[in-house]
Amino acid sequence: MTAPTPTPTVTAVAVGPRLVEGRGQLSDAVVDALRTGAPPTYAPGAVLRADPWGEDLQLALYLLYEPHYRGFEGVDDACEWDSDLLRLRQAIEARFLHALRSEISESPRTVEEAFAPLLLEPADLSGSLSHYLETVGELWQLREYAALRSLYHLKEADPHLWVVPRLTGRAKAAMVAIQYDEFGGGRAERIHSRLFADLMADLDLDPAYGHYLDQAPAPLLATVNLMSLFGLHRALRGMLVGHFACVEVTSSPGSRRLAKAMRRCGAGPAAEHFYAEHVEADAVHEQVVRHEVVGGLLASEPDLEEDIAFGCAATVVLEDRLADHIHAAWLQGRSALRTPLPGTDGGSGARENR
After folding, report:
1. How far lies 42's CA from each of 99, 181, 295, in Å?
2. Confidence (pLDDT) at 10
3. Looking at the predicted structure, is the pLDDT value of residue 342 above 70?
4. What is the rounded CA–CA span in Å between residue 279 and residue 257?
5. What pLDDT shows up at residue 114?
6. pLDDT at 6
7. What integer pLDDT is reported at residue 16 of this predicted model?
8. How high is the pLDDT of residue 345?
């Protein structure tokens, strides 16, 4: 009897965004490795010499994280657990974390110290990006802001889900309850990432996942990388909870201002709705996350308090870095993206930074 012919193994290829070009030695190495399947090639000591806040390192890290989400068009799914890529990612993560710890050397040690300043609306909102957009922002700036934020909002809440298996009791139950809202309460058309895609359509932007990666500068990439860093490491679960709590605590006031900005500039109903939805939802989430997610985690693992505080502080630092970058560009009349959006009047002086 003839033995049956073995069924050939078919390697699944992720259908994701287009793979972008690198911005330096590390990101070039990652791009080449993803395209060819060969180990990444870079000079010894390249990670330690790289600017931890720079375009090259932050893009390299983003590219190394993306296979854990939707991958890249034409890139083998198996690269997600490629040992050579993971080894490089580990080195870059260590460089990034070291830079964060150095930046926040005087970070708060307790949850109270970390969150107390965030619970009160500051009297001076001059440094607030959402206040700027609410009061004097122009439509081209709202479009840029949406293009930048799309790198996270089109996968909104995905990085935070990684913490669920690492929580227990009150913290787990509350986290899942909040995430149920983030993912539309069982209705696909109400998933927050879908609502943001609708916002982008109102603003005449491309809502395809990852479409604006090539135009996203390092300060934006760092904010998204922070979530992936915290989410993919069980040891950093306290930091992810701190990050998540910080986002929820600060979201409602900022969303209210952005909804007004969208309305004032005539951005469209879906654009306004995305932020209006977050005003009410995140006001409720703030209470749940502080008392049940953070409170529950502290009750079960009190030794994680410093990590929770650090996650909050790191979020504030990176959001401030991004706001400074955007403000500086707009005040000079140029684009905050690496290259301006097509048809944008503002930002004619933008230059690529490799």
Report:
1. 21, 43, 44
2. 34
3. yes
4. 9
5. 94
6. 37
7. 85
8. 56
Tokens 């964060």: give the residue: 100
Token couple for 310? 């650090």
Are 194 and 150 contacting, i.e. CB atoms less than 8 angstroms apart?
A: no
What's the whole-number average pLDDT of the chain?
91
Count CA atoms closer than 13 A to 334's CA, side-chain side: 11
HSE, CB side, 13 Å, CA atoms: give it for residue 257.
17
Tracing tokens 């990034």 back to the chain, one arrives at 96
- Tokens encoding 83: 């040992």
CA distance 279 to 152: 18
pTM, whole model, 2 decimals? 0.91
Rounded CA-CA distance 92/218 in Å is 14
Separation between Cα atoms, residue 300 and residue 286, nearest integer Å: 20
Main-chain phi, psi angles of 78, to 5 degrees: -65, -15
Residues 6 or more apart in contact with residue 293 via CB below 8 angstroms: 167, 170, 171, 174, 175, 178, 241, 244, 245
Give 13's DSSP letter: B
Residues ≥6 apart with Cβ < 8 Å to 126: none
